[in-house]
Amino acid sequence: MKKDKLLLFLQEGRIEAGCDEAGRGCLAGPVFAAAVILPANFENELLNDSKKLTEKQRYALRPVIESQALAFAVGIVDNNEIDRINILNASFLAMHRAIDQLKLKPQHLLIDGNRFKAYPQIPHTCIVKGDGKFLSIAAASVLAKTYRDDYMEIIHQEFPRYDWLRNKGYPTLHHRKIIRETGITGYHRKTFGQNADQFRLDL
Questions:
Q1: Domain extents in the chain
Q2: What is the pLDDT of residues 56-67, one digit of tens each?
Q3: At what angle do helices 135-156 and 55-68 cross, to 10 degrees?
Q4: Going by CATH, does the domain composed of 16-150 fall within 3.30.420.10?
Q5: Which helix (H) or strand (E) holds 31?
């Protein structure tokens, strides 16, 4: 089945940065976000919402995005900050940190999702499932996902029993079982709660 063609801009002729995050539903690790500004002539048939791509496809796309983007950046909010300000605010903060680092200032932000904390002096549009509709948001989703996966693979070496190499911090059965048996690490988010009742949530 042929996928719908993703759009390059919401408004042509405007410098737009697509923004997306990865790791919001995890029990452990940071939330990562990326902001990407693509050129007006950008084309890529493979690029899509990172969740619809294989790991191999995501990692193949990352250097393409980074080499062809007019600007890109990644922002990170760790688990301790998430515990202090909650995961929704942390997602917004990670996006703000990514936007802060862009070498080219965007005129408008395209935000994946239905809510966002306004970035100073740059208007934004929230787009539900935007990573499957706009190339810049899809590109941001790929960068956020791959950079976060890299991080989780590194800390997996420190705590291999949680299997972060495969679950990337998400609440899999194995991850939840090990938490119940041995407790949490310094990388876990305490505010998510680690009891059995909360594990029944449909995350």
A1: 16-150, 160-196
A2: 999 999 999 999
A3: 120
A4: yes
A5: strand 31-37
Contact 28, 185 (CB under 8 A): yes
Q: Where are the alpha helices (DSSP H) in the chain?
A: 55-68, 79-85, 87-101, 135-156, 164-167, 173-182, 196-199
Q: Would you give the DSSP letter of residue 28?
A: B
Determine the Cα–Cα distance for residues 8 and 31; give it in Å rounded to an integer.
Answer: 26
Closest C-alpha to 8, from 35, 36, 40, 47: 40
The per-residue pLDDT for range 28-78, each reduced to its tens digit, is 999 999 999 999 999 999 999 999 999 999 999 999 999 999 999 999 999
Q: SS3 of 34, please?
A: strand
